[in-house]
Structure formats: structure tokens, C-alpha cells
Design brief:
29% of the residues lie in helices and 30% in strands. It has 241 residues and is α+β, with helices and mostly antiparallel strands.
């Protein structure tokens, strides 16, 4: 349903993190660079939590205005077809929004991968504690560790592992073959992700190639994975690598 994250740009220096990073809306709005950074660590996928103030549903997209104690920002998701069903998020309720930060006409917004209602209010406090914890933890790591793994998985512990995070969305309702494909992709530790040929090889005799392609299309469409160096390399949006 949602657009997939844009592939990381090439170049030297600290690698872009493809881990999910909890942030306050003000961090996004006050960022003067193209890429949001936390202590010089580049963040590609953000998680914000706040109150949905408005929901504007149109034929091809849905626009949400989300507000937390630090600011307000718009989140946009595009519908693939006219029959797509919008997420069950209503105005004046808390929700979690996951996506990438984009800028248009000098105005920042979030390109949504997933938007979910908050069902446990403990998650609100956990979110803000995680925002505080991330830069503090980053200060304890040296630059070599940053280059090897820009955002450590331990820094994201309150948000669970890749499979735990996906279960918050629809992991247990997913086709078992799609789960298997996702699990193989999420285990990749390569900066460029796993190639389609590697997927075919890993799943030989277990899942047919056309089913793997269908799984990839589904996972990209739902924002669980994205393409990296080309259209045949894939990485999980929850990957800490």
C-alpha cells in the first residue's frame, strides 16, 4: 500500500542507517540538512508518535497531520489502487507513523511506510525515553563502531527485532511464504542487502521463483523492504546494519 524507501545514495563516510530511529517531530523540522542525523549518524527511516489532528483521504493518497509535544508535521501515503483500504487511524487519537523524511518546497513531510494506532499507552512513554536514550548511547560509541554499524540494534531494543516489529503490523497474518522471504532478507548483513539471485538460491526447493517475486512485490509495497543499489537488491527497513 505504501511507497518503499528510496535507495541510499553512494559515497564515502558514515554509512546511512537503515534502522528504525525514534525521533521527535522537532528534530525533523529543525534539521537543516537533507538527511536527518543523530550525533552525526545518518537516519533514513524515522518513527514518530503523536496525535492525529487531521486525515484527508483522496483518490490516490491520504494525508495525515500528526502532532507531538514538539511540533506538527504532515505524513503522506499513496494508494496503489482505488480499492485500497486506508489504515484504521482516526483524528484525535494517538498513532505511530513510520517512514522517510522528504522535503518539498522547503517544507518537510514524512513519506509513510506504515501508520498504526497506539493501543498501549505505555508505548508513548517508551517512545520518548527511546528518543532520549539514542544520543546518549551514541556518545558512548567511538567513530569506528559508527562506521561498522551506525545505529546499534541495542539502541533500538524497545522497538523489538525485525520480526517482532513486523508482527506489530501484520506479520502473523502474512502468507507463510512471504514470511520466509522476509526472514531471509532481514538476516542479510550486507550494506547493499540481498540480491534476487541469492534469494532464489537460499529458497531453492522451498518456494517457487514466481512466489518469491510476488512476496518481494508485496513486501516492498507494504514498506517492509526496499531496493538498494538496483532493482534486484533488497533490504529490510528494520535492519540495524
Amino acid at each position: 500500500m505504501f511507497s518503499s524507501p528510496a535507495p541510499a545514495a553512494g559515497g564515502k563516510g558514515i554509512s546511512k542507517s537503515r534502522a528504525l530511529a525514534p525521533v521527535a517531530i522537532r528534530q525533523i523540522l529543525e534539521c537543516q540538512e537533507d538527511i536527518l542525523k543523530i550525533n552525526n549518524i545518518e537516519v533514513q527511516v524515522v518513527k514518530v508518535l503523536g496525535i492525529i489532528k487531521t486525515v484527508d483521504i483522496k483518490s490516490i493518497k491520504i494525508s495525515y497531520t500528526i502532532q507531538d509535544p514538539t511540533g506538527t508535521i504532515e505524513g503522506i501515503s499513496y494508494l496503489e489502487t482505488d480499492t485500497d483500504t486506508p489504515e484504521t487511524v482516526i483524528e484525535n487519537t494517538y498513532c505511530v507513523m513510520i517512514g522517510s523524511v522528504r522535503s518539498q518546497n522547503d517544507t518537510k513531510h514524512i513519506m509513510i511506510f506504515n501508520v498504526l494506532p497506539v493501543t498501549d499507552f505505555n508505548e508513548i512513554m517508551e517512545h520518548y525515553l527511546a528518543i532520549i536514550h539514542m544520543p546518549l548511547k551514541a556518545n558512548t560509541l567511538d567513530s569506528t563502531e559508527f562506521e561498522q554499524k551506525p545505529i546499534k540494534q541495542e539502541m533500538l531494543s524497545s522497538y523489538g527485532t525485525a520480526n517482532e516489529k513486523l508482527s506489530d503490523v501484520n506479520y502473523f497474518d502474512m502468507d507463510p511464504k512471504f514470511k520466509r522471504v522476509y526472514e531471509v532478507i532481514s538476516k542479510s548483513q550486507s550494506e547493499s542487502g540481498i540480491s534476487m539471485d541469492e534469494l532464489f538460491s537460499s529458497l531453492t526447493g522451498k518456494i517457487q521463483r514466481d512466489q518469491i517475486r510476488s512476496a518481494l512485490e508485496y513486501l516492498v509495497g507494504e514498506g517492509h523492504i526496499f531496493t538498494t543499489i538496483d532493482e534486484n537488491h533488497f533490504k529490510s527497513t528494520e535492519s540495524p546494519f
